[in-house]
Every structure is written in structure tokens, then in C-alpha cells.
Amino acid sequence: MPSTLSRRGFLSRSAAVGAGTAVAASGLASGSTEPTQTTSVDALIDDAATRALADHDAGGLTVAVVDGDEVHTSGYGHAFRSEDVPVRADETLFRVGSVSKVATWTAAMQVVDRGQITLDAPVDDHLETVDLPETYDEPITLEHLATHTPGFEVRGRGDSAREPEYIRPLAEAVSTDVPARVRPPGELHQYTNYAAALTGQLIADISGQRFGSFVTENVLAPLGMSNSTFQPAPPDLVPAEETAVEDVVSFYSDVSPASGLHTTGTDMARLLQAHLHGGVADGERVLSERAIDSMHQQWFTPHERVDGMAFGLFERSRGDTRLVRHGGSVPQFAAEFALIPEEDVGLFVVAHGNEASGAKQEVVDALFDRFAPVDSSGDRRTPDGMPERADELEGRYRSVNTTDTVSAEKLVYGLLTGQPVDVRIADDGRLVTKQGDRTDEWVEVEPLVFEHVEDDSTLLFRETDGEVTHLLSGLSAYEQIGYHEQLSVQGWLTVAASVIALTGLVGWPAARGWRRYRGGESPPQSVTRARWVAGAGLAGLLLFVLSFVGVIVAVASMDRPTLFNRPPAWFEVVFVVPTLGVIATAGAVAYAARAWLRDDWSLVTRVHYSAVVGAMSVLYWLLQYWNLLWVRLG
Fold it and tell me: What's in the keyword line of the UniProt record (predicted)?
């Protein structure tokens, strides 16, 4: 609908309608929404939210703050894709992306609290619908899932769908394309949606209920979160009478425990209360006090200096204040859920719009500055000499989301997500990291451990069998890669090898045609046979590109999920084509080697043929590196 109000006028009106509600827990329980006298917290929220909507291309947001027994909820701007409908904290639905996991981990801790599973029990013993790979002897436990340390590769396919009718039952979503286990559990943090989705199915298998039913009956309903739902397309998401949800939304979670929650500010205030008040909100208990304490304690960290993982929540230190939090985002929405247990404070912020993340973060930063201020007047750290093993640290590091992926998704992660980290050692001993446009400096405080020269952050290096292999920036892990693995190097190799390969693909048939036209002498039969074999290898490359593009076009024209979200079962056939080309290329290499050993053919013929075969080998190596062959070694 077109807006009939100016932006400033609408913001003022919506703030008057939805903002400034500060009530005690008992008042919230009775459904009271009468505004009380504005407090300093309300003023802070009003100022930050109004400024955030003015500074960013965001349509609306809602805020919930729990400060002891006080609850502050407010709404600003307009509902999603409904510009004449002001945001109300108690009824306007927002998507919260990965903040959905907070409800999932809360439900998982309920199952633990009831003695139906222990945190260190193998989840495979309780899963009825999913068979996990038995790659390692060490079993995956619920503790591993909650700290994102089960050792799975990142799996993007199957996480979402573009239409609600494509959403699968959770059991099907988690049992199809089960991600590979790429390392033993407990070794390294690697955030994945699959860990939370599998936890949701674990809850379902233990309880005998569908995940959504269990969470509704055991978390949402007892807490009075009556407007919250894991439905893929709740009609109230877009309140405009003549607008259907599917007409304006292109993302639907196919793994609802990880990213499928729709909720309101008032509902999330109740979840904040439960976590801050020993498992109780409005007199309703969903977890024991011991279980809540267990959720908030640290369960994993790569080093004592580094913020780690609580049970499904991320630790974050601001000065001497410890937070546990979780962020989330899906297209057009960004959210934050954060607790400061020692201060009995919690906050929830969610925004929608093209710049939802920026708007959300501006409000979150203002609240953090109020409840967990940081003294930034510390002295600048200086190095005490060169770092130990300095030569081993320098180089480029790429996210393990790419390096440890054994499926064809590796190319997607490598090209489209994340940026590598370049590490060098300055002359005075400072370690300098550059990631994109950001440059940071670090000082070694113990072997392989570095502190930022100004900020309160830590950088770690991890070694395997005595060699430095990984860089850890907080919990984010990066693996050191060789020069030949850098995208810029591989890009130039691809261009050069393609040009050389084309001289064979185009040049050999052209030369043969020219000889026939001029009546020239044909080359030896061995040359002709060798070129036919090499031609088969070149054809494999060309047919792979053509078939890949053809499949993308064909799938896009079908009434089905996208190729990335859910590739059809026959998609793997595409990778058979270049695999056959590898076999032909191996034969071409043998012909080239024999020609040189026997001194066959002319020197020019041998050099050109070898160059073409070498270029083919480079291109097939690149396909293998990015897991684009049917037989994958990576």
C-alpha cells in the first residue's frame, strides 16, 4: 500500500502508538499496555530507535528490555510491507532468523532438565529419523550441537525455500544431504544451521511430538508467547488485507529450529524474563533454576582468553561485563537477543527493511552502552620483540566454511561468502591482519596468542602436528592456504589455461581443415590419435560448462525449489561429465610423455600438445579443488 504520511510524521505517530510502555512483570502478565511515566530507559530506547529508522533504510523495529522487574516494550515505524500499519510491540510479527535457536536450545534444555537425555550422551542413540556418519570414533553429543562443535561441514543446501509449499517436514530436511563430518567433535567451533535443526529433530524423536508442537506446548504457551509461531508463513506477518505473505517474501526456513520463528517484542520480553529469573516468567516455570544456570555457563572456548559458547548462546565480554547472546538475520530482517545475567538485564531488538541490520545494531549499541559500558581509555599495547615462530604465521587464511567443505558448495562459500585474512609481521614485531578494508594490529602475549593493540579482543593460532594450520579470530576459524589456493592466483591460472586449451580445441580442427583445403600432408597417425584423446578431455570441460549452465536455466524455469536450496537428485550427473574428461586427459598426458621419451613428432608439435595437455590438467585440478568432479578427494 502507498503511504499517506510523511516519513517524519509516520515515525512520530507510530512512536506515540507503540513506544514507552514500561510495566512491572505482573502488569505485563495481565496484558496491560497502558503507558506509564517515561523512564530514562524509555527515553534511551525512543531516541535510539527513532534515530536508527532515520539513519537507515529500515521500515520498522521493535524493542524489549527487561531490567530487573521492569519490562520495557515498544514499537517504531510500520509493519513489514504494510506502510499504514504501525508497529505494536504486542502484536506485530517479525522474523528473527537465528534468534529462533534461543527457543530451540531452551526446549533442548527442558529435555535435559526432565532427565530424558544427558548433555554428554551420544545423540545417535536417541535419533530415530537420522543416521549420522560414523566417520570418527568419538560420538556427537548434545553439548557438541549446542556449542557448534560436532565437526560437521557447513551445509547451505536445504536450509531455505522460496515458496511455503516447498517446506519439508523437519525429519526429511535433516535426513536429506546429511553434512559430512570433517573433524572429530569438540575440536573446533564452526557455526551451522544444521546443528540446531538436528537438535530440533532430536527433541521430536525423544518427545514423540513434532518439533513445533513441542516448543509451542512447553515453551511458548507456558510463557504466554501467544503470538509466536514456527509456522513457515503466518498470515499476520503482512497485516495488509489485500497482500498475501507469499507475494512479498522470498525466504522460508526449511529448518525451522534454526531460523523459522516469527514473534513479537512483548513475547520475546517473556523469554528474556524466563532466562533472567531462574526459568520463571509471570509465575510460569519452563526450566529449573539449575538448568538456566547451566545454559548460561561456558561450555566451550578455544582458549581461556577467548569468549566462547554457553549452551547455544555466544559469550561476549564488554570490559568486565559478560553477556550471553545470539544474533539472527534473514532477508529483510535482523535481530538480537542478549542477556547480562549478573545485572538481571536482557534486551531484544529486531528490525525490517533493506538496512535492517544497521538499524538493529544502532539500537543494540545504545543499549549496550547503557547497561554494559566499556572504558576505551586503555593504554595501547606495544610488542616486546618479534613473535615466536613469526615466519610460520605469515600468509593467507581462508574460512573453514570453505576449506573444510567436501561438497560442490565449496565454490559458493569460496566465491560469495567471507573474506580471507592476510597476516604479516611488522618490523617492530606487531602482527598485522588485513581482511577486506579492515586492518588490525596485534601483540603476542604468549606463544601463538595475540591481543589487539587497542581493543579487548584475542587472536589465536592453532597448530596440528607441530605446524601452524589455523587462525582463530574469536570463535571464527580460518585455515592457512598455499599461494596456489588464492583466488587471484587461481583466476589468472584459469584465464591462461583456458586460452591455451582453446588453441587446441579450435586450432587443431582448423589446422586439419586448412590442410585438407590446401592438400597438405597429414601429421603422423600417433599425433592424430593423441589429439583425439586430448580433444575428448577438452570436450569434457566444454560440455561441463554447457551442461552446468543448462541445468541452472532449466531448474530456474521449473516450479520447484532453487538449484542451491534443493538440487534435484539427478544433479550429480553433471559432475560425471568432467570426471570422464579427467580419464581422457590422463591418456593425453601419457601420449605427451611418450612423444618426448621417443622424440616423436616435431618439436613445435610436442611443445604445443604438451602446453594444451598441461592447461587441461590445470583446469581439471581446479575443478577437483572446488569439488566439481564426481569423484571428490577434498
Answer: Hydrolase, Membrane, Transmembrane, Transmembrane helix
